[in-house]
Automatic annotation (TrEMBL):
Name the UniProt record assigns to this protein: Protein HflC
Subcellular location per the Swiss-Prot or TrEMBL entry: Membrane
GO molecular function: peptidase activity
Gene3D superfamilies in UniProt: Band 7 domain
Source organism, top-level taxon: Bacteria
Pfam families on file: Band_7 (PF01145)
Classification via SUPFAM superfamilies: Band 7/SPFH domain
Amino acid sequence: MQRVFSILCGFLIICFFASSTLFVINERSHALVFSLGEISREISTPGLYFKLPAPFQNVEFLDKRILTIESKDAERIQTSEKKNLSIDSFVKWRIANPKLFYITFGGNERAAKERLQAQIRDALNASVNIRTVKEVVSVERGKIMTEILNNVASRAKPLGVEIVDVRLRRIEFAPEISKSVYRRMEAERTRVANELRSIGAAESEKIRAEADRSREEILAKANTRAQIIMGEGDAEASAIYASSFGKNHNFYKFYKSLEAYKKSFATKNDTLIVDPTSDFFQFMKCSNVK
């Protein structure tokens, strides 16, 4: 029993010694080994490593991954035209020199972010203050991001930090300027709309006038053609009547009288007051027509 207890104690001592002398670095971390408070080693390669037990040596881990700084509130920056813009940006960064980073910030990422945010704000002001709104929003937006990246990268390098990327996520007018801009845009759009309406109305009147003119020309031509056709028909009818009159005078008179009777007594209620002995009724009094 005593032997088992001795073996167990020995095993626990070995485990304690191993835990205090062995440490693992994964692919997401840097490690700084401190010997009595001073940095003795800087390790960035993943693996299993040895150190002296505390308090002779201890290890501090730093994040190796790419980190992001996002502005909580959009920065209010003035352009060369003295117009305020609200700019929202973000920055990708990482710890490039763990030893220098630890010396500068004591391994505190929050302190590093605050320092970098101040540098980003200064670089953003420097690039935007010398440009117009149009240049900031569209024309030189990429150039501005490159300038900010280079500016902040050169200032962050002595801090042990590498700036990977800088992006301007959103650029807007300040609220008080946005209202006036929207009003100008609305007035401009209204002017354009009214101009288009007036042009449309003028074109509409022109089309109507052209259509009316074409209609009058078509009707005039049609009436002229109709008169010609009617004249030709009347002439042909007169020729037929004349020919018939020349062939049988009595039949012609009889036929014309029948037409007159037909027109005079179109309905049952028609009343005609004439002398019964007049020539109008001559064919009604004759039983035979020669």
